[in-house]
Specification:
The structure is a single chain. The protein is of the alpha+beta class and about 300 residues long. Among the domains are: about 140 residues, Barwin-like endoglucanases (Beta Barrel), CATH 2.40.40.10; about 80 residues, Alpha-Beta Plaits, CATH 3.30.70. Helices cover about 20% and strands about 25% of the residues. Strand 2 and strand 3 form a beta hairpin. It starts with a strand and ends with a strand.
Length: about 300
């Protein structure tokens, strides 16, 4: 399917220029921004434990919400700004770069993931007001999204901002290391390698390598228009490599309406079997089903969108 990149012009471009020209004022006495790399320890929110980990590639679906937090610094030390393309995620390393596609409108934008959240267990990410606006969302209702991590840029951000571990290496004094070029044995002509060694190594300067383009702190406002694919909402309770394990969980959650769904590649080694509740007709029903699954002890339960990738 073709993808059309819409470079925003007119009022949108003017809004971007205005946002770039001005800075969000910092309240007196508030800490100054100091962007840095963050992973963090496990923590609990919404009654569920979260375990941050590095993840540079992958695609996930779920419900997005609009961030409603107070001004201040994000979890990685950036200034929180509702006017930039940014988002919050519960477990990814910070910062990271992802493409967020609104499955209702088909619009997609790149966002800088720089904060922790959302607190609601049934929400995958929380985006800024500007991000929601560009995605075509103007209300307060949650909306289905696909989140695709951008591996190259996310690794670049981590490499540029993560503190490097210092490795202490003791170097030998210069006068304690000696080298000597030995003469070839009788009857053998000096080799080219021997002649180079005798006169010292030849060092050739490496060709200059262009530094990768840095990921900007404020991402440009670029929108891709794809085909809408809203799909259906489900609560996924578990994913298994063997069907018998999925069947065990399904029997345990039968009273919640759980069923086993096999992946399309069931004949390959990568086949998986998911235990899902649904389809659910709206976000409220999905939230209720998720709450029942969490109360049943399924701590990894989450809301997903079964939508066809474009």
């Amino acid at each position: 399917m073709s993808r059309t990149a819409l470079l925003l012009a007119g009022p949108l471009a003017a809004a971007l220029a205005a946002s770039l020209a001005g800075c969000v004022p910092r309240p007196a006495g508030s800490p100054a921004p100091a962007p840095h790399y963050v992973l963090g320890q496990p923590y609990q929110t919404g009654g569920v434990w979260r375990y941050p980990r590095e993840q540079f590639a992958g695609t996930d679906t779920g419900l997005a919400t609009v961030a409603s937090r107070a001004p201040g610094l994000t979890a990685d030390g950036e200034a929180f700004d509702q006017g930039v393309l940014a988002a919050a995620h519960r477990t990814l390393q910070l910062p990271a770069l992802a493409r967020v596609t609104d499955l209702q409108t088909g619009r997609a934008v790149l966002v800088r993931i720089n904060d922790r959240g959302p607190a609601e267990p049934g929400r995958l990410i929380a985006v800024t007001h500007r991000t929601a606006e560009l995605l075509g969302e103007t209300g307060s209702a949650p909306f289905p999204v696909r989140v695709e991590l951008q591996e190259t840029e996310s690794r670049q951000l981590a490499g540029a901002m993560a503190p490097a571990a210092a490795l202490a290496v003791a170097t030998a004094p210069h006068d304690s290391v000696q080298a000597e070029a030995l003469a070839p044995p009788d009857g053998a002509a000096p080799s080219a390698r021997g002649r180079v060694a005798a006169s010292g190594p030849t060092v050739t300067a490496a060709p200059p390598v262009a530094a990768p383009e840095a990921v900007p702190l404020r991402l440009p406002e670029q929108v891709w228009q794809l085909a809408p694919a809203p799909g259906a909402l489900y609560v996924e309770c578990g994913s298994f490599a063997r069907p018998q394990y999925a069947a065990i969980m399904q029997r345990r959650l039968a009273g919640l309406g759980a069923a086993v769904v096999a992946s399309d590649d069931r004949a390959s080694r990568d086949a998986t079997w998911q235990v899902r509740i649904g389809p659910l007709h709206d976000a409220a029903a999905a939230d209720a089903a998720l709450d029942r699954a969490l109360r049943a002890g399924v701590s990894d339960a989450r809301i997903i969108v079964d939508a066809r990738p474009d």
